[in-house]
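Progress against Task 2.4 (sequence-to-structure conversion) is shown through the following example record, which the project officer requested during the mid-term review.
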Amino acid sequence: MLYTVVIGIWELRKHGETRKNTKVMRLTRQSGYTLLEILVTMGLIGVLAVVAYPSYEDYLRKSRYSEMVTAAIPYKNAVGVCFNRTGSLANCSASQNGIPPNISNSQASLLRFLFTLPNGRIFAFPSAQSGFTLLGDYYVLTPTVTNGVLTWQFSGPAVTKGYINN
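Structure tokens generated for the chain above:
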């Protein structure tokens, strides 16, 4: 945007005649930012990144871990069906009474191993993807029967680290 500033109008006498001379200075509005503004902005972005990155990393880890939790749902439901059919958890293990077979050494997903023990307990172990460790990030689903009602309890390092809400 241009601004016109009239510095002065005066008369010049040249060769005996009078004429008006207008001296005009045009100022242009500068576009851009000063170095100080850029440095302050970069500093604020840096502070926000330092504060936000750990929260974002935890969010990503929990969302990746939800794949493991989702993979165990059919096993959990099958143990519930087995309990309703047999009235006991004693025969509720992998490949029996409608419970799917164990998953061992899976390379297709985040879930590396999934075992269902004869008492209906389910162990889920992650693969080494996304920074998870086999023995440091597993979780256990433990069925409990109280007055004929089956309830589930989550335990293991994944619960301690907050990947799963109990």
